[in-house]
Amino acid sequence: MIECALFGAGRIGKIHAGNVAREAGARLKYVIDPNEDAASALAAEHGASTATTAQVFADKAIGAVLICSYTDTHADLILAAAAAGKQIFCEKPIDLAIARARTCAEAVAKARITCMIGFQRRFDPTFSAAKTRLAAGEIGTPEMLIVTSRDPGAPPIPYIKSSGGIFKDMLIHDFDVCRWILEDEAETVHANASCLVDPTIGEAAMSIPPR
Fold it and tell me: Is-contact 67 143, C-beta < 8 A?
């Protein structure tokens, strides 16, 4: 039985808390979130307790951490988990700065632990079927890959400000899918966008500093 700590009690944190609960070989021991009410509610739902970050990394019983908090917390938590010898699942992206992401990769390699990033689309049935059919020659030589992505709703404004926006936060999935299905690298990237739903989202995106 591997005991786990979950950072982040928001939408994606709730999903992963449920995933741990359904896994016979795992148990959710701690939930950590600055929003104490959210952390307490999610912990109570799954028979866990709330804790501080320091408590998690000092607890030798914790074998793995799930990092489902805001993007700008990911790198620090990965580095702390690696230093403590905890196995890691982290939602994408690792960080908005490439140098920082590489620092995390080096720390994970040095600690000789597993760090899995949440690129789940390789396991989605439709994407997996397309990859299998392509490998079997059923589709033919690929000339174009079109990926259309949708979320069930707009994310909170604070999340938009810290996540890097839709291109860095969501399009990263499409880069992963493209590299995996086509077994090739993108040579050029071009993007344009319009904010047609909520002007507040556009204002928040424009406030994101360049990285």
Answer: no
